[in-house]
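Example with several molecule types.
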Amino acid sequence: MTTVLDRAGPAAAVTPPGRRPVAMLSRPGAGWIVPGLVLFGLFGIAPMVLVAYLSFTQWNLLGSPQFAGLANWQRFFTDPAILDSLWLSAVLTVLCWGFQTPVSLLLGVWAAGKQRSRAVLSAIFFLPLLLSSTAIAILWHALLDPNWGLPSYLGGDGNFIGTPQGAMISVAFVASWQFIPFHTLIYQAGTRQIPEVLYQAAVMDGASRFQQFVHITLPQLRHTIVTSSVLMIVGALTYFETVLVLTAGGPGTSTYILPFRMYATGFRSYDMGYASAIAFALVVIATAISIILVRISGFAKMRSTREGL
Amino acid sequence: MIRFGLIAVLLLATACGTSGPQAGGGEGAGGGTLHVWVLEDKLNATQQKAADEFNKTSPVKVVIDKFNPDSYPDKLRVSIGSPNAPDVFFNWGSGSISPYVKAGELADLTPAFDADPAFKSAFLPAVLDVGKIDNKYYGVPLRGMQPVILFYNKQVFGDAQPPKTWTELLSLVDRFKAQGVTPFALGGATAWTELMWVEYLVDRFGGPDVFKRIYNGEPGAWRDPAVLKAAQAIRDLVDRGAFGTNYASVDYNSHAAETLFAKGRAAMHLMGSWEFTNHTELQPDFAKNGLGFAPFPAVDGGTGDPANVVGNPTNFFSVTAKSKHQDTAIKFLKTMMSDSYVQGLLDAGDVPVLGSVEPKLASTPNPDFARFQLDLVRKAPAFTLSWDQSLSSAGAQTMLTTIQDLFNRKITPEQFVANVENVK
Amino acid sequence: MIALLWLVIVAVPLLALFGATLRTQDDYLDNGPLAFPDGITGDNYLSVFDKGFGTALGNTVMVTAGTVLLVMITAIPAAYAIVRSPSRIVSSGFRMFLLGLAIPMQVTVVPIYLVITRLHLYDSLLAVVLPTAAFSLPVSVLILASAMRDVSEEVYESMALDGAGSWRVLLNLVVPMSTSAIATIGIYSALQAWNGFLFPLVLTQSADQRVLTLSLWEYQTQFGINVPGLLAAVVLSGLPIFIAYLFARRALTSGLMGVGGK
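Resulting structure tokens for the full complex:
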């Protein structure tokens, strides 16, 4: 991803200028990149252009899209349902970030230790990552059933996923349950890159473990924290399967986060033009947030978190 | 440069596609396949048998494709806009097919009915007309009627009687609550289960014309006092604990509501007649000994006829305009009126809307229920189709989520009326 | 502390998942998800196969294989060109892949549906393979290009002096020297395909073309209150990846890091 950018740039830019060109050195022509470009252009870039175009049309899946001018966008900026979805998306994002970051940071730092028991536990922590979002959502849908699931152990009537707050917390928890292992790995790798000497010096100064964590580990992990946060936030903005399987947007519209509203508008209400407007807005928001985060954190180049894996 | 090139290629492909050849259900002269889309339910075995029988002699082979009821309308819409449209498909008539009719995607079946008067006269005329749009027939009603029925658990009821009036219903609610039993099972995680309450109450308070005006998009139709009264009655039920407290988490699709009901943790369940079939399948003992059924009660001061019913008057099979095998499709649909097919429906608890069905009821496994259903529908002055099938899909989505908000006490009855006001 | 707490949060649901699949439906409904099984039954796993699990598994395998193959034959030459080609087309192409990293695939479903139906591919496995592979490309190209850059200029020169053409250089030098990166992108794209849900949901419809993730979703209705049967399907759907995890943990971890990054 972004983490390998600085090493993967195009050849022309990085060939050392002073090097003697080898005349017979055969270099691959532009043709080599064409199959990949066509595939990605057709199903990656073109759909982005098309989504922008479709947002100015009306299309109910029957027949062809009809040009509709600014109608969808006028509606977009005046629709209270959109504001509601934006708010729900923001809540979900904050919940996910607020839950995942401390847990995966602490777990990652802990797992960076070399003890064998930690390796074994880490292997168990990793297991949720092996299941698909769908499988995980189905598992939790069963476990959150009010009458036959885990809520029945907690006393009360088990009405959790049916309440607006409960449903949102459920989605945030299930998504976190799935992705914390991934972020733990990022933090584990980041922690292992912190030079050992820093800790040795601190120990000589008599710093406690807590002081070491606050004054060495956290500052050293700041780039990792930004990387992980960007991934979490963009991820939370695009959760879809979890919502569809777990709550289907309900109760009412309590978990109609933006991507789910896009899907429901397009494939349930058959209003593809408006769905495209929502989709386009989603891209803009996700990109803007990533850029702002990277800017605020004060570095344009992300350091590699892949090393050490 | 490249990017623009790619877009051009793509737009070209897009443009060609719209006018390009449509790969329908089958190809080649004589052979080919006829895709029939149905819901995944207890009737699939009967449908498959009819297809197998038909395929023995027909050069065009019938293929039955089964779909999950919840995602079926989406799949249908998506495919009818695509070259993979079915030849024949299951639907609810009325609003569920009118967009297709407008888009010219459905075959007009009027000539087929006109050519074969015996075919046409076999159906109850009132039901046949639900499949009529702009005075043309677009659907053949070949499945059972599915009125919404008040089921009750006889073991829980003991000597109590099912409610005939709203007052009786409320006193039953208090009685069961005192016993620690949830009065009504409700799969409230699935919004259409709650819609059934709204449909019946609006009909009882104001009669079927209230919804007709809504369906016709008349301004202020939702402002009819019957809608507010129905919403208030629902709020009252919710406040009384008629549905327990955790209904919002109960998923109908996971059969959670019916299991609670059958296990005696709930006393009653307002649900479509198909629920009887589900119980015979999943809890056969309960279906035999514990399952009672009654009409929805009257409400005090309501102007609607208490004999009215809501639900699905029938289901239809429609034929797509692009199908290459329309004649075969009609031929196949006619075989579905055969005695053995009708018997298969009856055995599964489905009462088809054929005039000739009554004498056959006695030989079915559950003659009492079959007769109850037939009587209920026959005596009903009005049989209103489920609202979510009549309204536009966007309107239905809004209405369903708003009803869920009402049941979950997120909004007041007054807000409910205001929030659905623009739904058509 | 937190490690132990998290162990409970991870292990308990997984144990409940596995335990439930060995119990009867009545046992599960009467005693709850955490109870020790009354007895052990294998029926739940068998019941999954009555519901078309085999077809779905076959479809998922085909989609996965197709995606990996397509990614390999497009990403490897593309990465090679990015690292070695002086062409300006290549460098703008590279920028396009970078741009692609920022596109969440969720937002493209409507236009992709349009493109797929117009190409007459709707309801086919190929319809799932094409966009899935396309969205695996940016990450794959980056990982590969990064690894290929490690091959030193001298090695290229010596091969060139032997008169080797681009093809030979790619097959005899670049590919062998980037095997671990190739394994990573293979696993990354395989996981994308195996766990993908949205594209199959929107681009296929019939039971013959249904992949595992979609089947699981359908099972939720089909099994209904038969939770053990449903969960058996969940376990089976994850089994192949679990086995891969046991045998190739390192490669799988790197592949997954790519997945999460999308």
